[in-house]
Amino acid sequence: MYGMLYESVQHYVQEEYGVETWKKVCQIVDCKHNSFKTHQIYPDKLMPDIAAALSACTGQSFDFCMNFFGRCFVRFFSNFGYDKMIRSTGRYFCDFLQSIDNIHLIMRFTYPKMKSPSMQLTNMDDNGAVILYRSGRTGMSKYLIGQMTEVAREFYGLEIKAYVIESQNDISGGTAGPIKLTDGPLTVIVKYRLDFDNREYMAKRVNTAAHPSQLKMPTVNMNVFLELFPFTFVLDHNMKITHAGEKIVETWIMHNPGANPKGFIGSYVMDKFHCRRPKDTTINWDTLIQMRAVLFEFELIRTGHNRAAYDAVLNMDFENYDEMTLNEAQTMALTKAQEFSEQQQAKNADDEDEIDPATGERRSSQGLRSILLKGQMFYIKDVDSLIFLCSPLIENLDELHGIGLYLNDLNPHGLSRELVMAGWQHCSKLEIMFEKEEQRSDELEKSLELADSWKRQGDELLYSMIPRPIAERMRKSEEHVCQSFEEVSVIFIEVLNVYDSGSNSIQDAMQAVTTLNKVFSALDEEIISPFVYKVETVGMVYMAVSGAPDINPLHAEHSCDLALRVIKKLKTDELEGVAIRVGINSGPVVAGVVGLKVPRYCLFGDTVNTASRMESSCEPWKIQLSQYTAEKVRSVGYKVESRGTVKVKGKGEMETYWLLDGPET
Ligand code: HEM
Ligand SMILES: Nc1nc2c(ncn2[C@@H]2O[C@H](COP(=O)(O)OP(=O)(O)OP(=O)(O)O)[C@@H](O)[C@H]2O)c(=O)[nH]1
Question: Where is the Guanylate cyclase domain (predicted)?
Fold first, then answer.
């Protein structure tokens, strides 16, 4: 069901019962939508679920809530300006009741997927009327009562009493039965009695006969109607087509090659047409008489298409036709049809498509479209028949040709031609607008992609300076991120013999940068997040940490694994005399982001200083561990060897260890 119905419910439940009640209702029905989009389709079941939940929250009955929702809908659609449409349906409430189906028909362009109900005014008297409601949804019967009550009050100043007199398949009363959209025909049927003062309307109907416009007019020959409405047809009480306009007969012949041209008149209407609107309507005399205010749509049944057969039949000399026996005419039409399809196959063989004479465009000869006739039934007393005064529903020239018609086939006095041309212009304007829109959305798409890539690059740059979890925390809150860690392992790696600081040659400096870049990139490849995080590079020194920002109990092991990997990797890189040395120490640190312009994630504490000293006092191609780190990894199988005591700047005598290898794998 379209979101507009749910928008109205949400709006007025919040207004009437408060936002908290609405939140509670959403919680009960587990509704994920904070708001509803007018033109989006939501499950039908949501409506009774919300009614049942509101009933539970407020103590009102389910029926009361559904009735309330119906009233909300009428108040709400006035915001869309639809109130004008309701007021324009007619002077009296009964005029409105006869126009609800037409209202939904008109709305079909705005709500193309609408599965609207069907409403039929079956009886009227001084004290009210009887309405027959049919729908594919169950449980909406009280919703409709709310709508009708609100429309009567708001737009006609009428207080009505509406109640169900009989129903089939409807779930009424408190059972908030699931609304299911039953496939196929409208199976929910509810008959309502509406009690209200209808005397004025009834009196008007009686006076109509005495209306000045009803001065005795000469009877009109039926042919006038058939000329004015060339697509019309006349029905008798048995729903047989007794007369028809020339264009509908010609179209039927074109769309049913080989059929007997005289087979249209005298046939049962539903053998020739599908009734598209109102849906699932039983086409019989009583129903059509009752529904004269309703707009019907009939689609011509076609068994194929065949312009040549059509031409052949049209070129037939109808006058002498009566001499021809029926099957002679059919044989001729069939022969023509046969010739046409053989020619067609030949043409298709060269993949030639038919050039449409009117638009000059290639048009595949795959077939014509069915013709849709839209109009109203009128009762003609003189001949005790119903005439379907209609025009073909054609939106644009393509559709016109798709049916095999031309503009001059359409009734000149009606608006059909204007509509087609307007539709066509409208379509071409729309096409231009769509193209522009498409262009704009492509441009928007490209700029969004560009913005996205910039954001990604920005994020990569940011995450190269600040660990992602820290950056995300900083994005969420202004808080300054500073954290202490009980124990991490800090790794310093220095690249040796890259650059002779005494040299002034640019060449050497550029070579150094290239080599350094190569080495640091190789180190970057060995950083496995989130176990080890690269902190910074200063000069020839590469600093990393394990255990921050993500806590990692195996920080010492992961640091040693990294060290062993990079020694192995860089030794095989034959970097012309370049060497590296690695120092690792474990202990507590404080970590935080410092700086605004180029924010950096920095580590503070003696653990860092000692790790740096482990590196700066290390020999090339070796890994020196502090005693604490060595004992940690030795206990899990890493091979370490005491280096003895080393005089470490700022630390005095320290026992340090060489890391020789990882645990037995
Ligand atoms: C004038 C503006 C109106 C608009 C724009 C409108 C539009 C709609 C839409 C979009 C739906 C949902 C159908 C679907 O999603 O399949 C709907 C359903 C419905 N409408 Fe209307 N409508 C209007 C007036 C009315 C009036 C005046 C009545 C009756 C008094 C009415 C009776 C109903 C009912 C009972 C349903 C529920 C669907 C069902 O029972 O199957 N509508 N309408
Ligand atoms: N790259 C880097 N090095 C650091 C960091 N913190 C300390 N160090 C180095 O660790 C070593 C020991 O630091 P300190 O004990 O403070 O010694 P210092 O007196 O500041 O520096 P020295 O002149 O080397 O003695 C120094 O070489 C520092 O450069 C850091 O966050 N990043």
Answer: 489-615
